[in-house]
Structure formats: C-alpha cells, structure tokens
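Example S7 (structure tokens).
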C-alpha cells in the first residue's frame, strides 16, 4: 500500500504539541464564544446560569442535612421523645425535597443545554455559509483553506459541549466552595491533601488531551480525504463510473489503509492514556484513604460525632470527585478552546477581492467597454502564467469570441472579467477606470456568466433558471421567458411537474435530465439577469446541431446592443462573432473578424480549415 504523503503547507498544522501557553491563550476565545451563545438566546443563556447556580448549593446542603439526621438518630437511640422524632421526619422530608429539586433542575438544565446547542449549531452553520460567500474563489481552490473550513465546520456541532462544560465547571466550583468551607471548619489541611491527591491525574489528562488534539489537527487533510472517499464510494454522482471502471475495490483499499493508519495512531494514544490514567488515579485514591483514616480515628476517639464523620467523609469524597472533575474539565476546556481558535481563524480569513471603500458608479450603459492592459495572471498553486501580456479592447456592444486550445486561458480571462480573480499584472479598465474601482456586487450584477462547469442544482427546474437572478425567483413570467430563450421551455414542457419539477435524483421524486437538457436549463440563467455583458463559456457543447443553431440565432437577437463573450470550440458558432480573439499559452495570438483572420492565414485559419475539412 502506498505511503500517504501529508499535503500540508502550513507548518502549524503538522506540529505535534500545543504548548501550555497556547492552551491558556486559547481560553481568551471564551468571551467571544459566549457572546455568540448569548446572541443565540439570551433567555436560555440566563435561565441556564441561574438554575445551575441553585443546583450548585444542593450537594453541601444534602450532606449537612444527612449529618443532622445521623446526629439526631444517635441522640434518639439514647433518649427518645416524640418531638425529636418529628424533627427527624422534617429533615428527611427536606433531604427528599432537595433530591427531587436536584433531579428536576438537572433535567431542566439538560433541556436548556440541548436547545441552546441546536440553536447554536444552526447559527454557526449559517455564519459559515455567510462567510464563505464573502471569500475569494482562489481561497476555495487552496487545500489548506479547505482544512481550515473543515475544522471550522466540525465546530458547529461539537462546540455546545464547551458551553455545558464551562457552565458545569462554574456550577461544580460553587459546589466545591460550599463543601470545602465545611471541610475547612474541621481541618484546613484536609483541603491541601485533596489538592495533592488530584494533581497527578490532572497533569496526566492534560498531557493526553494535548496529544490527541495535535493528532486530530495534523490529520485534518487525511480525514477530509476519508470523507471524500466515503462520498465517492457511495454516491449517485459517481456510481456510474465506479461500476463501469470497477473502482470500488480501489476506493475501499485506499479508505482501509488510511483509516487503519489513523486508527493505529489513535489506539496507541488511547492505550497509553488508559495505562497512565490507572496509575495516576490510584495515587489520588491513596490520598483519599489517608484522609479517611484520619477522620475515622478522630470519630473513634470521640473527637467528632458520627454525623460529623459521615459529613466529613461525604464532603471529602465529593470535593475530591468534583475537583478531579473540574481539573479534568479544565483540561478538556482548554482543548475545546483551542478548537474554537480554528473556528475564529476561519472567520478571520479576509477576502482579497472586495469593493473599494468608495466606489465609482457603474456605467449604465457601458460606453467605451472593457480594456485589458498588459494583463497577467498566475494561479496561486501554479508557477505558470495562465495569462500574460494580454492587451485588447472589448468594445461596448461588441460580440467577441474566444478561441484557443485546451488550457490556453479562455476561462481564466472570463474569470478576470467577472472579477472572480484580480490580475497579478496590468489592469482591466471599464469605461476608462480600473474594474477594482467599481462596487463588486455591481460588477457581478452587470456581467452574466454561464460557465462550462455550471452547477446542476438539485432543486426545482424553475429555481435552476432563477439562480441567474435569484431575487426574481418568484417572477414566473420572467423565468418562463428566459426558459423560452434558452430552449429550456421544451425540456420543461416534458416534465411532469413543469417548473416545480425537482431535478436530479438526490431528493424526493427528482428527475434526471440529459446533458443537453441540463445545458438548456442552465443557459436560461443568462437571460434571467439584465446584464450588460453576457459571457457564455462553451454553452452549447452538449447541444445537438439544430438546438445549437437555434440557441445562437436567439442569442444574437437578444443580446443586440449588449456586449457578449462566447467561448467555443465550434467554428460554426465562433464565426458569428464580430471579432475573434485567439489565445495560445495565455497570450494573444490574433484578433480580428472571421474574414480578417482567414485572410491573415494564421492559427485561426488553420484551426478553421481543420474543422471544416472534418465535415467534408
Ligand atoms: N484553479 C486553477 N488552479 C490552477 N491552475 C489552473 C486553475 N484553473 C485553470 N488552471 C490552469 O490555467 C491554464 C488556463 O486554464 P483555462 O481554464 O483558462 O483554459 P481554457 O482555455 O478555458 O481551457 P479549456 O478549453 O480546456 O476549457 C491551464 O493551464 C490550467 O491548467
């Protein structure tokens, strides 16, 4: 089995240890976290806090009533009177009441935790989506970004544990405070003994929490790959090719080797944690019994009452348990807080493509057009220039076709026009001003692009067209007119549910369309929006010859007066454009009308001739 290389660009992702300082620093995230929780529901937040506070006083009160009962029983066994019996029953009733109250409060707190947790998970998921919408396309193409996103996504459901953790912690601390006060009255040294008893297991737990966080963090890319393998191994999108090419064994083997490697690392950690855990807890138990011996001896000598004995022994046991819990929780709390750091790190990612502080009004209509001035662009994960030294003008109202071999840079040029990326060199001007000076949303609103790898939304046919201008999704006449222009109306007429018909097989009674049918639907998006520049990136590749001819007839008429850019490998389409720009290896080779370029007898003439001969 091939050894897996870890694709980690960020050195902090691979480091195995998280220092104490980092752990304490991570606690600094708690206020921001609580602010988020508070915003989810102030009522639930406050209610939770108050109920937990009340519950914190119950253990000490119960133990104290227990002590009173025992002392009273002992007194009664020596000297019985009816009045005293009544007093005992009152005490028993009070203890019973406290027990009921404690259970009731416990349930109420758990309920509030659950509700708050659900609301919080929703809120974080929404914020994740909102933030993703602001980020650059380039950021989505970066593997380390995905690791961050993945870690952040895991925060949305798991972080409520932190919420009840911190609340529980405070509740326990108050409980311990009451109990410790009782112990201190008898002997303050008992408290010191307890602290010494719980320290070893605290240190041990901290150490192991730290290691398990580091392991889980450094394995984020692999865990993402595992999720991906699980998805492609069992999904409607991939089932066809998995079957035809017999890929399941290959995928399962890869999953097995990767998940086994992770399991082994986790197992090693879990075993050593369990071993050390036994040893360190035994030390704590020894401390507890030391104190117990001291308390029993004092009772035997008659220095304390039987009730005192049970109260002290009970308090001691509870304080030790609670302290152990608090320290343990504290260590997982710092761990949770470190995970929170991932969430806030993700939220802190800033897009580099945004609107200027004060933007220039977008021209209506565009007068001069777009000018590329020496534009160069390189993808971040690539050394090669995808576009270089590109200078040309797309005049207002002009129909431009982009031609070039695979990988020549056509789609990249279009992405620059729509400001999905900014040029690394040179600039793009719109009516004389840098495209970056205009409001980003205005630029996007005025430029409609249908990409070759358009998305097949598993939603209704109507919505699949309306995504071209989602604000108009209830404007049925507009959706239908767009469908008519892109020939999607003929596809939709055949669907049982019409525009309401669910597309794709993922949900309910979804219907799958053919490649060309999907393309007609997606093409409808271009007509939904009243854009001044319409860009179609290989829009007809899947259409039959008749449909393609008709689409372009309509496109020509409908974009009259508007600018358009068409990318196509079919010269029957390309020749209809006013001018054709031929790209090669990211640079401009030729530009001119169909006839000019044929006359020039350069690359365009050559490619055109090749295709024409194929039809003869
Ligand atoms: N997201 C990306 N990250 C890195 N490199 C990319 C990315 N997208 C494209 N490239 C590279 O940039 C170059 C230009 O790609 P582009 O998609 O613009 O070509 P194209 O002319 O549209 O090709 P095609 O005709 O195959 O659609 C190619 O070499 C490609 O490998």
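Recovered sequence:
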């Amino acid at each position: 089995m091939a050894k897996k290389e870890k694709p980690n660009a960020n050195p902090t992702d691979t480091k195995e240890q998280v220092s104490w300082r980092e752990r304490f620093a991570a606690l600094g995230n708690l206020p921001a976290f609580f602010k988020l929780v508070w915003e989810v529901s102030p009522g639930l937040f406050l209610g939770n806090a108050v109920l937990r506070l009340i519950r914190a006083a119950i253990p000490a009160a119960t133990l104290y009533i227990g002590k009173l009962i025992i002392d009273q029983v002992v007194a009664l066994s020596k000297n019985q009177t009816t009045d005293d019996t009544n007093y005992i029953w009152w005490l028993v009733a009070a203890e019973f009441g406290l027990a009921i109250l404690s259970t009731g409060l416990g349930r109420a707190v758990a309920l509030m935790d659950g509700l708050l947790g659900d609301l919080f998970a929703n809120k974080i998921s929404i914020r994740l989506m909102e933030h993703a919408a602001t980020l650059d396309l380039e950021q989505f193409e970066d593997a380390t970004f995905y690791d961050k996103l993945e870690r952040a996504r895991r925060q949305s459901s798991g972080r409520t544990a932190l919420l009840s953790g911190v609340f529980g912690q405070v509740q326990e601390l108050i409980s311990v405070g009451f109990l410790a006060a009782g112990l201190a009255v008898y002997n303050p040294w008992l408290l010191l003994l307890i602290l010494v008893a719980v320290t070893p297991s605290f240190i041990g737990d901290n150490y192991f929490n730290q290691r398990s966080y580091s392991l889980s963090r450094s394995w984020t890319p692999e865990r993402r790959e595992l999720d991906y393998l699980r998805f492609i191994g069992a999904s409607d999108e991939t089932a066809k090719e998995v079957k035809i090419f017999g890929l399941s064994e290959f995928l399962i083997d890869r999953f097995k080797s990767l998940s086994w490697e992770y399991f082994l690392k986790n197992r090693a950690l879990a075993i050593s944690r369990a071993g050390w855990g036994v040893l360190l807890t035994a030390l704590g138990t020894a401390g507890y019994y030391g104190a117990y011996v001291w308390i029993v001896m004092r009772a035997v000598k008659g220095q304390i009452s039987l009730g005192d004995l049970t109260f002290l022994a009970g308090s001691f046991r509870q304080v030790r348990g609670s302290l152990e819990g608090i320290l343990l929780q504290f260590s997982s709390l710092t761990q949770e807080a470190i995970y929170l750091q991932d969430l806030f790190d993700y939220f802190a990612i800033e897009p580099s493509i945004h609107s200027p502080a004060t933007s220039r009004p977008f021209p209506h209509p565009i007068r001069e057009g777009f000018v590329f001035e020496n534009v160069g662009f390189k993808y971040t994960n690539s050394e090669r220039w995808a576009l270089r030294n590109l200078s040309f003008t797309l005049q207002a109202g002009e129909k431009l076709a982009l031609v070039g071999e695979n990988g020549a840079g056509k789609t990249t040029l279009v992405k620059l026009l729509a400001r999905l990326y900014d040029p690394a060199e040179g600039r793009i001007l719109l009516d004389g001003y840098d495209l970056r000076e205009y409001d980003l949303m205005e630029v996007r609103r005025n430029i409609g692009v249908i990409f070759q790898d358009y998305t097949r939304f598993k939603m209704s046919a109507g919505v699949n067209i309306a995504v071209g201008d989602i604000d108009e999704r209830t404007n049925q006449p507009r959706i239908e007119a767009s469908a008519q222009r892109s020939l999607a109306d003929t596809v939709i007429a055949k669907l049982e549910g019409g525009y309401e018909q669910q597309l794709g097989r993922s949900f309910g009674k979804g219907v799958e369309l053919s490649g060309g049918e999907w393309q007609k639907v997606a093409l409808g998006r271009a007509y939904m929006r009243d854009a001044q520049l319409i860009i179609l990136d290989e829009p007809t590749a899947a259409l039959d010859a008749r449909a393609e001819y008709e689409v372009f007839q309509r496109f020509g008429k409908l974009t009259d007066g508007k600018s358009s850019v068409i990318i196509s490998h079919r010269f029957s389409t390309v020749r209809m454009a006013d001018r054709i720009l031929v790209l090669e290896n990211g640079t401009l080779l030729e530009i001119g009308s169909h006839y000019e370029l044929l006359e020039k007898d350069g690359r365009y003439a050559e490619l055109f001739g090749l295709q024409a001969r194929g039809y003869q």
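Notes on this example. The longest strand covers residues 385-395.
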